[in-house]
Amino acid sequence: MAARRILPAGPGACLLRPGTAPDAGAGGCPEFPACAEPVRLRTGQALYLAGQRAEHIHVIRSGAVKLVRGDDGGHQRIVRILKEGDMAGLEALSGARFGQAAVAANDVEACRIPLVPFRAALEESRALRNAVMERALAAVQESELWLFLFSGGRHSSRCRVARLLLRLRIGDTAQIHRLTLDDMGAILGMAPETVSRAIADLARKGVVGQVGQGRGRRRFAADRERGIGE
After folding, report:
1. Whose CB has fewer CB within 10 Å in the chain, the N or C terminal residue?
2. Do strands 208-214 and 175-176 pair parallel, antiparallel, or not at all (unpaired)?
3. If we measure between CA atoms, which residue out of 118, 106, 111 comes closest to residue 38?
4. Which helix (H) or strand (E) covers residue 188, if one does?
């Protein structure tokens, strides 16, 4: 797992978005121009590591970040994927250490906000407090949904892969964050070969289709009306 490398993230303030409280300022986005540090990660670089002291909050601006948790046997499992607008490292608010690693699943842009000024901003801004509460609640609900959708049971491997592809949609578009077969297998508890066969089956049925190339990785789009989640 590669260490984080901070690169210039280009113009634009770091925002907590979307769907924040209506009185949060222009566009409904609390901004942190004074303390937020733009971070750009390449695939495989870590935003933070498990066991690391939690001193920052992170907001994902683009790309996908995988949360990786290990067990006592040394096995690692991807427990969730963070996408644009999600917050990472909220355990910093309790003074804890990170319980899992956050690793870029593809090219990622994020905002790194030091904990001390973030807490001060929380005390001063009701809109920010509401936005953070929304994100925390959404994170709990998403974690519960992941457990329900991907825990196995009687659903076929094709159905579980299809459900995962839906969770990997980029915003409201039909495009999908393309993970490696190993990463998808780590989420679903499947062998990469099983994941590959399921995707090939979905492609033959026209449920997913290739829409282009990106840094040597295929990008796919999902046709929801053809029952990708069924």
Report:
1. C
2. unpaired
3. 111
4. helix 181-188
Instruction: Select from 32, 27, 93 the least CA-distant residue to 59.
Output: 32
Six-digit token string for 31 = 């901004």
Encode pLDDT of 12-55 as tens digits: 445 444 333 333 333 333 445 456 788 999 999 999 999 999 88
What span, in angstroms and rounded, lies between the C-alpha atoms of 190 and 160? 10
- Burial bucket for residue 184 (CB in 10 Å: 0-12, 13-18, 19+): buried
| Total-model pTM | 0.73
- Provide the token pair at 142: 């998403």
Longest dimension (CA), the chain: 54
Q: Is 66 helix (H, G, I), strand (E, B) or coil?
A: strand
The enclosing domain of 124 has a CATH number of 2.60.120.10
* Cα angle, residue 64 at apex, residues 126 and 199 outer, rounded to 5°: 135
Can you say how many angstroms the Cα of residue 68 is from the centroid of all Cα atoms in its chain? 11
Domain boundary among the residues 97, 112, 139 is at 139
CA end-to-end span of the chain: 35
The mean of the pLDDT values for the chain is 75
Q: Please answer whether residues 55 and 97 qualify as being in contact, where contact means their C-beta atoms are separated by less than 8 angstroms.
A: no
In sequence order, the 6+-apart residues with CB closer than 8 A to the CB of 214 are 178
Query: Do the domain assignments include residue 10?
Result: no
User: 56: number of CA atoms within 13 Å, CB side?
Assistant: 18
Yes or no: say if 180 and 104 are a contact pair by the CB < 8 Å rule. no
**Percent of the chain surpassing pLDDT 90:** 17
DSSP letter assigned to residue 168:
T
